[in-house]
Design a protein that fits this description.
heterodimer; A: 330 residues; alpha+beta; Cyclophilin; 2 domains; 7-stranded mixed barrel; 6-stranded antiparallel beta sheet; 14% helix; B: 217 residues; Gyrase A, domain 2; 4-stranded antiparallel beta sheet; 4 helices
Chain lengths: 330, 217
């Protein structure tokens, strides 16, 4: 079990979401950085889609109630276990009574860290997922962000889990996280309805993530994108990654908690392989967009999936570092 | 008559089919029928279908299938839709019209140049079809409405609309399942629960259902 001592701006239970619940109008939801979530689960021997904690921007603190194998992946949010640095992307043993806390962004990039524990967070599944649906208030723990005083049940650890102690996920096997990521974009269904300069503008300048951005979507701040003429589209199905352009011309990049349908024209879709990069942005951060082909999108997806499926070997150096709790912060 | 459809990838794992027609009713029927057929006999890699007003989005696992294979299946279903099983399902929705429950009823009547009673009569004349579920869990887009009930969205959306509100806009009628921001005209309210994550199924209505509104006495 884990006790929440502090939650920071947003602390939630997330997994890979509920794709099949789209038919009820329920967002897919789940981890913003799905790569980091799956990597954290693999490091501690969990199934890829086990529920873990998504820590946003830092400020969270958790009390460990029983010895456990844990892994923190995603952003470097200054994770510490008691007074020592917690090695990131590494399976680490934590003891009863120890406190894991996240001080805040510790590099030029990073928004969301994932804390997986062997056995997973064992809140009840709703519609096949333990992810927290913040908009509708279900899933996770009581359908809401975690707050101090919450106690999180954890499942029984997988057998032989201790064999994984010290497992490490090297930087070369991670997405190319960056303070100014370049997100690849496919043409949207309504690209041609925008002024020719709109797509050029979208793909040549830096865009800033707006202050009102959240898990549903990012408002991209820059010059407005002009349509050829005012036009309406009948509401249509959308997915995370879609860039919608409302009448004010300010694009919205849909993220994990995006509604299943939208009524604004779609100028393009960010490829799935680059969504983990987008997930690591906070309001005020910038991103670039470039056009890509479907073939590039598929190749990038296969590459990322192959990285996630890579065999894991315990490395002695990492093992020692993890046991001592003094490994280099990676 | 065969409708024409245009296909666009929404990323590597989804394919959007949009009808190239102003006949949203026919396009929606084809999308509903195709979605039902995909769910009844899922092709390899199929994850979910989202039928909408005049489109169909199909999500799939790109490690198992691809846009070309999925497009072949979806195009065949859309261009020659299997008969849409109306499921024999007509859902009665009791509505308290006007007053506090439907603060925009008089405005809608004025916009349409008819009396509030005539708005209620037209709205309960149905049944109308659930064309899609979207915007929020369990939110049905119901229509298409006859011309005499067509109003645009409100000029100023409300920050919060009470759950159960029955609303009109854009040639459609809808029901707010939860407290949500909304730009539709509120003409009444139902006490039925449209979405409950703990229920089975979680949504009262499904695409393709027929809805019959009934005025509370």
């Amino acid at each position: 079990m884990l006790d929440v001592i502090a939650s920071g701006p947003l602390l939630t239970v997330q997994d890979l979401g509920r794709a099949a619940a789209r038919r009820y109008g329920v967002p897919v939801g789940g981890a913003m950085d799905r790569f980091a979530l799956v990597a954290a689960n693999r490091l501690v021997g969990n199934p890829p889609g086990a529920a873990a904690l998504e820590i946003t921007a830092g400020g969270a603190e958790l009390l460990v109630n029983a010895p456990a194998l844990v892994a923190v992946t995603g952003a470097d949010l200054g994770a510490r276990c008691n007074d020592r640095l917690l090695p990131l992307w590494t399976a680490v043993r934590v003891g009863r009574g120890e406190r894991i806390r996240f001080t805040g962004r510790s590099r030029e990039w990073g928004a969301r860290a994932y804390l997986a524990m062997a056995g997973g967070i064992a809140v009840p599944a709703v519609l096949g997922s333990r992810a927290t649906d913040l908009a509708s208030g279900f899933g996770g723990l009581a359908g809401r962000p975690l707050r101090p005083g919450d106690r999180l049940p954890t499942g029984p650890p997988p057998p032989l889990v201790e064999l994984g102690l010290g497992r490490y996920w090297p930087p070369a096997a991670r997405p190319p996280y960056s303070p100014l990521p370049t997100l690849r974009l496919l043409h949207g269904p309504h690209s041609a309805s925008f002024a020719p300069e709109a797509l050029e503008l979208l793909t040549t300048r830096n865009w800033r993530v707006g202050a009102t951005s959240n898990r549903m979507g990012y408002r991209l701040e820059g010059p407005p994108l002009a349509a050829m003429r005012p036009f309406d589209v009948p509401s249509l199905g959308v997915v995370p990654g879609v860039i919608q352009v409302p009448p004010d011309g300010a694009p919205i990049l849909l993220m994990a908690d995006a509604q299943t349908t939208g009524g604004y024209p779609v100028i393009g879709t960010v490829i799935g392989a680059d969504l983990p990069l987008a997930a690591q942005l906070l309001p005020g951060d910038a991103l670039r967009l470039v056009l890509a082909t479907l073939e590039e999108a598929l190749a990038a997806h296969r590459t990322l999936m192959a990285l996630l499926a890579r065999p894991l070997d315990a490395d002695e150096g990492d093992l020692l570092a993890a046991m001592a709790g003094e490994g280099p912060q990676r | 008559m065969t409708l024409a459809w245009s296909f666009t990838p929404l990323g590597e794992a989804a394919l959007l089919a949009e009808a190239v027609t102003a006949d949203h009713d026919a396009a929606n029927r084809a999308a509903l029928a195709a979605a039902a057929a995909l769910e009844a006999a899922p092709p390899p890699g199929f994850i979910a279908a989202t039928p909408a007003i005049a489109s169909l989005l199909v999500c799939f696992d790109p490690l198992v299938t691809g846009h070309a294979a999925m497009m072949a299946v979806v195009r065949a279903l859309l261009e020659d839709p299997p008969p849409l099983r109306e499921q024999g399902r007509v859902v009665m929705i009791p509505v308290t019209y006007g007053g506090e429950a439907g603060p925009d009823l008089d405005d809608v009547a004025a916009l349409l140049g008819i009396t509030p009673g005539e708005v209620i009569a037209a709205h309960t004349a149905g049944p109308f079809r659930v064309m899609m579920i979207g915007f929020a869990p369990g939110f049905p887009y119901i229509g298409p409405l006859p011309a005499r009930l067509r109003v645009p969205r409100r000029a100023t959306p409300r920050a919060a609309v009470p759950p159960g509100s029955v609303a009109l806009a854009a040639g459609l009628t809808g029901i707010y399942p939860a407290r949500l921001p909304g730009g539709w005209h509120l003409i009444g309210r139902t006490s039925l629960r449209l979405f409950d994550a703990a229920a089975e199924p979680v949504a009262l209505l499904a695409p393709g259902d027929l809805v019959q509104f009934v005025a509370d006495a």
